[in-house]
Amino acid sequence: MGSPTELAAWQALTEHQKEMASVDMKSLFETDPQRAEKHTVQAAGWTLDYAKNRANEKTLSLLTSLVKEAGLENAIQGMFSGEHINNTEDRSVLHIALRASQAQESLMVDGVNVLEEVRATLKQMEAFTKQLHSGEWRGYSDKRITDVVSIGIGGSYLGPKVVAEALTPFSREDIKVHFVANIDGSDISGKLKQLNPETTLFVVSSKTFGTLETLSNANAARDWFLSNGGSEETISKHFAAVSSNVEKAVSFGMAAENIFPMWDWVGGRYSLWSAIGLPVAIAVGMDKFYELLDGAYQMDEHFRTAPFEKNLPVIMGALGVWYINFHNAQTHALIPYDHYLRAMPAHIQQLDMESNGKANLLDGDGVATDTGPIIWGGAGTNGQHAYHQLLHQGTRLVPVDFIAPLKSHNPIGDHHPQLFANCLSQSQALMVGKSLEQAKQELRDAGASDEQVELVAPHKVIKGNRPSNMLLTEQMTPATVGALIALYEHRTFVQGTIWGINSFDQWGVELGKVLGTDIFNRLVSDSDNSALDSSTQALIEAFKKAQS
Ligand code: F6P
């Protein structure tokens, strides 16, 4: 397809935005007592209340037309049937195959039943985690493994780390999982200081097995192991790998039987459901890992089959486009009111920004619209004492997704009702705001002079009418966490489809990698840098001087 701006629904939305510019969300609630009920949908253990959006029936109907005109139905069909929808890399996009129901017998891709490969790998993970948990797997000095360090970066790090953290209440006590990602030596050094090589196992996760950070950290781990009692002969008791490049993993020194496969048709940022999720399975057990997959599968089925008007990823994706393209929203905030989900915005940030940070349509032409927003956020209530000021009174429109469990895993005192009250009150405050008259009255009631009232009242005005979604679940469990992440994966796909871009490549990260290698070579040699810009030359010199 071409530019979405050519679509009739896009043009109608452009006109409709003018009608909506003066509509206050509060009036939508006043005129329709059923608004909340009408704008609440449920799937896979999650309830989405999207009533607090600048959207009336016409808006929603036009947005549904937009996704239809953009070809979402075909796109979903293409994804689930294994078509090469990642057109620039000529690949299928099949994270959904990683969590397909056992009832599905086959999913043929290029003549191969990928479900057989997926299930064989799950069995391999099952056997491996069982050996670790039972203590059958021993280190070189015959002690059981107590610590597992996952080494990876990007999608080979964020997804597993965020899920392992989200599932802390389900973590096993007999084994601890750690994560190392950064090329900054402080990351791995800090971890190694806490560990005993006799009882530590490293899982090196890299789809390509060619990523600088991961290979450097894996080498550092191996050196540490070898210089602290380990030997080449016992490496296989302490190192495993997850990669689609088995040859490279073997030439790194990994024992072939300790290598877990993954495939070209899984994008890094969509890979936590594959053996890249091994650290999660180690932390919580394979049973819980299967529950995580099942939660994601429930969301997949909802996405694939529910009518667009009742479809969570479609509604959230389309509303996002409404704000990005018709209200000039530049960013989108995710605010989980759940301590264990505190790192989730970082995972969704990679998922969404690496997927939809694109400026070309599928056919290579430049886009005529804005595409993926800046995704950011953090845990509530912490953010209320940091960036919520800008959400309420800043000049930018920031749509927010609030995410909260109804029940806590740690129900002490009034903590949970207080936490939940804050979550609800933030979404309410964003919508209702505070008028000048209310601000003045508040000051008068507090005994302020007329002069103070005039001076301070404008600063207390909160315009309100700021949109948010509320995503609620009974409790954070492996299944609901799985469904939540799958929801955001599909939301990303919905938006990419509307914009007509390929959400599944990431060519933009390559230039920095190439230049990084070039600069590294200059930092460690006496190269002639005179052809470089003067800024880069001076910065290289500053680094070299500091090392001498
Ligand atoms: O540089 C970006 C990226 O390719 C991500 O897409 C990916 O998740 C990450 O690097 C890690 O890649 P790999 O798993 O191949 O080490």
From TrEMBL:
Pathways per UniProt: Carbohydrate biosynthesis; gluconeogenesis; Carbohydrate degradation; glycolysis; D-glyceraldehyde 3-phosphate and glycerone phosphate from D-glucose: step 2/4
Keyword Ligase: no
Pfam families assigned to the protein according to its UniProt record, in alphabetical order: PGI
Keywords: Cytoplasm, Gluconeogenesis, Glycolysis, Isomerase
One GO MF term: glucose-6-phosphate isomerase activity
Reactions catalysed: alpha-D-glucose 6-phosphate = beta-D-fructose 6-phosphate
Cell location: Cytoplasm
Main location, first listed in the record: cytoplasm
Annotated family: Belongs to the GPI family.
Name of protein: Glucose-6-phosphate isomerase
Organism the protein comes from: Marinomonas sargassi
Name of the gene encoding the protein in the UniProt record: pgi
